[in-house]
């Protein structure tokens, strides 16, 4: 596997600057494209799974995190509070408290549940400068987060559906998990004290994992402070593991924020809160994708999807026309003309681009293009219109295959 820090610089995906600060990378245009494509995939998958998206602020009053329990259980990982007009505000260490408050802002009937609230939002962690680096250890994190508010009866199905979303996303992204982990509390005061709540939540997640047919391991001391969780672990080239995706069952925060819904009996009931993240932090996910694919991203994620290569200056008008058609169709294309070197040199320079569209005199004359695929395959010349249509169909369906033969008949 590759080192995402080195490749990220080489491919101009992201960088850091001491003036902005350690652990605060910025995204360059090509990196921003990958990130946006990934975020669009996640939002699309969430919409299809019945999630509603919200936005909430990255700051909150200290009191908010005192209620959620972050202040007492997680403070050493939080940025110090800022004094502001007699109040203290902090950069949020998680999105959960905001979503609990959003839930609480309206009355809910049992008929509205499960209520699934999602946000790709910023959160902050006061990591020590010694451990910071690349996209994997950062102080500003964009988290793909969601909270499902549901009845106790709905927990198993919602957790199962969340786990299925993760498995599906990994297929599309080409990610293979290192292992699934049931993360349980360990000794020490890091965890909220409520034995019955922990037992119930752990039993629910155990059942979900057992029914999923996935192999998993139990790990003590890896739970969130408010509840146990299913962690999906990934490994880098050196075998170092990190958690990318999670599904958590939480009875604690609904109680802390006094959340309720009206049941069929007309009485007030406490919902359960499922925290789930499909791709975890955008930073860690992109770092892993860079290392996994060595910069040769699946075509739907690639910063440039089509490079157009006119053999000589005479074919430049046709090359510009093809790039424009691609762009109008929503594809990311650019022309690499003869001024950038021989055809061979330009093909080598574009080796990470999924589709290399060569136009010589023969192709130009009849509005054809000769496609070369990143894996070395060379296709027979085909009409420009058909090439754009077929590339676009493969890209928009987020297929892993670079090409498929036209359907028979
Ligand atoms: Zn949460």
UniProtKB/TrEMBL annotation:
UniProt key word Lipoprotein: no
Residues covered by the Aminoacyl-transfer RNA synthetases class-II family profile domain: 29-298
NCBIfam families with a match to the protein in the record: thrS
A matching Pfam family: HGTP_anticodon
Gene3D superfamilies: Anticodon-binding domain (3.40.50.800), Bira Bifunctional Protein, Domain 2 (3.30.930.10)
Molecular function, one GO term: ATP binding
Name this protein carries in UniProt: Threonine--tRNA ligase
SUPFAM superfamilies listed in its UniProt record: Class II aaRS ABD-related, Class II aaRS and biotin synthetases
Superkingdom per UniProt: Bacteria
The protein's enzyme class: ligase
Record keyword Nucleotide-binding present: yes
One record GO biological process: threonyl-tRNA aminoacylation
Family recorded in the similarity comment: Belongs to the class-II aminoacyl-tRNA synthetase family.
